[in-house]
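Worked example 3 (structure in, sequence out).
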């Protein structure tokens, strides 16, 4: 039985070697939820009717064979006329039985009321079925003394078969719930399997993101520049600053390679990691780089994917600020807009250049960031854009659902660090 239906995006070219990210999604883009729907009334009724007809045919075959073995054979027509109407009458009652089973349930707080309803209607249907069949049997076999009158025939069948009719009603209700719970269990099992597969994919994406942080966000150019800055501090006889820079670099590497990195981290942790990154870059750019943090009060507890801002800031520094001499500014922003969280990176660099006669093409960093967000929250709830800002430079924006508790479909770490 079936359950009831219910701006252009671009990025500067990136010379760092990217990691390959293969995305797999359900057709809806989101994980399916475990099914707990009630069976469709029409289909449940059709199946119940078909079951009654099948039982009727089996009864006819059984009665025909028993009469033949007993030495009192009867024609097929005689057996059908006598046996088939009993279950044919039940086919007329089955839609009502299915409706009662579907409406008055035993799996909620009102099960006592449901039990009374089923007891009353079960007895009523059993009485009605016995009375109708008794009347039919009188019409077709009126020459038998026990059923010579309609009242006598009804009384005869009710005394002998009322209990069987009540049990037939109970069996129909029980079989309905068996099919319903089996369908619900099957849907839940399929949803669980899809969720486990999704969790595995998310863990793979997280591992790839950690590697990408070394190859893209913490690429050899950055490491070379950081070590070169340390060498400059040593030559200028500023050992304390050199040691501090190496310490920050070590902290950044440890945080990036943390084997217990969660699929989601508080925004305050992501911003702290970004500060370590910018503290090291500040040594390279010196006084000409001014970093401004515009983080709205109250959003520090929002959960975001780790390392989600790294590629945006790295692009802003490498392809924006580094390509333009003189003082430069970098604005990191975070604010809540209704049920969405908006993260922005705005630089005062040269902005985005549109090649003549060619459309804007999205690069690796933004496409990877978008893929991670869509894998976590679905494509309809997220967005990543890169545009020229009104006051100059480039503006990168990330939109994702605002939440402070882990999303139910987000995978937790599969392996803990030793």
């Amino acid at each position: 039985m079936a359950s009831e239906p219910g701006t252009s995006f671009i990025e500067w070219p990136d010379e760092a070697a990217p990691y390959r990210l293969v995305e797999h999604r359900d057709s809806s883009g989101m994980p399916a939820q475990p099914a707990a729907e009630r069976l469709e009334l029409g289909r449940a009724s059709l199946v119940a009717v078909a079951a009654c007809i099948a039982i009727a045919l089996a009864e006819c075959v059984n009665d025909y064979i028993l009469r033949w073995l007993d030495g009192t054979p009867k024609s097929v027509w005689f057996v059908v006329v006598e046996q088939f109407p009993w279950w044919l009458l039940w086919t007329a009652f089955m839609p009502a039985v299915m409706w009662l089973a579907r409406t008055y349930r035993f799996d909620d707080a009102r099960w006592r009321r449901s039990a009374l309803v089923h007891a009353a209607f079960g007895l009523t249907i059993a009485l009605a079925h016995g009375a109708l069949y008794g009347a039919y049997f009188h019409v077709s076999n009126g020459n038998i003394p026990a059923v010579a009158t309609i009242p006598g025939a009804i009384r005869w069948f009710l005394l002998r078969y009322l209990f069987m009719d009540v049990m037939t009603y109970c069996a129909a209700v029980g079989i309905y719930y068996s099919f319903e719970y089996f369908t619900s269990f099957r849907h839940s099992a399929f949803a669980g399997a899809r969720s486990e597969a999704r969790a595995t994919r998310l863990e793979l994406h997280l591992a790839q993101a950690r590697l990408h942080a070394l190859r893209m966000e913490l690429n050899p150019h950055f490491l070379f520049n950081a070590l070169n800055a340390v060498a400059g501090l040593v030559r200028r006889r500023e050992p304390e600053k050199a040691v501090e820079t190496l310490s920050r670099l070590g902290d950044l590497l440890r945080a990036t390679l943390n084997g217990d990195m969660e699929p989601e981290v508080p925004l305050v942790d992501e911003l702290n990691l970004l500060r370590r990154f910018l503290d090291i870059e500040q040594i390279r750019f010196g006084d000409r780089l001014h970093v401004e943090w515009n983080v709205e009060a109250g959003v520090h507890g929002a959960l975001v994917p780790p390392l989600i801002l790294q590629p945006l800031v790295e692009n802003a520094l490498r392809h924006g600020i580094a390509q333009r001499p003189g003082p430069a500014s970098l604005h990191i922003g975070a604010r809540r807009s209704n049920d969405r969280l908006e993260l922005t990176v705005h630089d005062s660099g040269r902005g985005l250049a549109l090649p003549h006669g060619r459309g804007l093409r999205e690069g690796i960093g933004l496409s990877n960031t978008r893929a991670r967000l869509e894998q976590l929250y679905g494509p309809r709830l997220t967005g990543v854009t890169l545009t020229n800002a009104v006051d100059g430079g480039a503006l990168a924006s990330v939109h994702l659902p605002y939440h402070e508790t882990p999303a139910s479909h987000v995978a937790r770490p599969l392996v803990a660090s030793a």
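Notes: Confidence is low (pLDDT under 50) at residues 1-36, 214-218, 411-418. The chain has two domains: 41-191, 218-401.
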